[in-house]
Amino acid sequence: MKSIALRRYPFTSCRPPASPQVLDFLAPSTLRQPSCRGFKTTSVTPFWGKSQDSSQQTTTPAPKPKYVLSQKQREFLDSALRVNQAGELAATLIYTAQTPQVVRSHPHLRPLMKHMYDQEAGHLSTFNQMVAKHRVRPTAMYPVWEVAATFLGWSTAAMGREAAMACTEAVETEIGSHYNDQVREILSWQAEAESRGEELDDELKNMLTTFRRIRDEELEHLDHAVENDAKEARPYDPLVNVIRFGCKAAIKISEKV
């Protein structure tokens, strides 16, 4: 009987590094993890050895070089994360203030209000983690936005269900548009990278996916608001226009401050 030689294949360990502790965005900077500046990640490429057929050798294509962000692009991402965090904070506070009054008069809306609040709370948690991970400075306007959002939620709910839904329509129109601008900007970087034979870092790819998902969920809230008579609010046009103007102003301020 012919003996069969078994070839051993070396493997390298691909165990990922321990996940960094994500702290609340208000934690002292001295307690936060080191910066992920440039949104770089590291990975270990497994070594699979050669084919058993010595006449054929399996070669792994060399990975594409990573697209390196410019200083201006890093500043854009810092600004985007700061604004997104502030916007999601405001959204959770608006729903917190609206829900008791809305469901008191319209109990059937309790599941919808909870669904929208839960999604906004999830968005806020996501951006709190990103802000902490990438050492982004949160907006200094936090206390102002906290008061303003709470008052907006309470006052529109006091005006009735339609006004509360009109508030959601106005806010989500601006927020959805803002997320869309961010997605469009990162996609332009992706196109530039591909034209140079490069690819986006995995961290940036994940960020793009997250922005798209959250944008779609925000626009879903807009649809819910319209379905629940947002356009029946009185006075509709002045109310929606004032809220949209306030959102635009808050976005511009939070980008810088």
Tell me what the structure shows:
Belongs to the COQ7 family. The protein is mostly helical and 257 residues long. It has one domain (71-256). 61% of the residues lie in helices and 0% in strands. It has six helices and no strands. The chain has helices spanning 71-105, 110-133, 142-158, 161-195, 202-227, 236-256. Helix 3 (142-158) packs across helix 4. The longest helix has 35 residues, at 71-105. It is elongated and about 65 Å long. The chain starts with 70 loop residues before the first helix and ends with a helix.
Structural class: mainly alpha
- The ordered H/E elements are HHHHHH
Largest sheet data: none
Cα gyration radius (Å): 24 Å
> What is the number of E strands?
0
Low-confidence stretches: 1-55
- The level of helicity is 55-70%
Number of structural domains: 1
Average of per-residue pLDDT values:
81
Strand content: under 5%
- Identify the overall geometry: elongated
Distance separating the two termini: 80 Å
Number of helices: 6
Catalytic activity: a 5-methoxy-2-methyl-3-(all-trans-polyprenyl)benzene-1,4-diol + AH2 + O2 = a 3-demethylubiquinol + A + H2O
Pfam families: COQ7 (PF03232)
GO molecular function, one term: metal ion binding
Membrane topology: Peripheral membrane protein
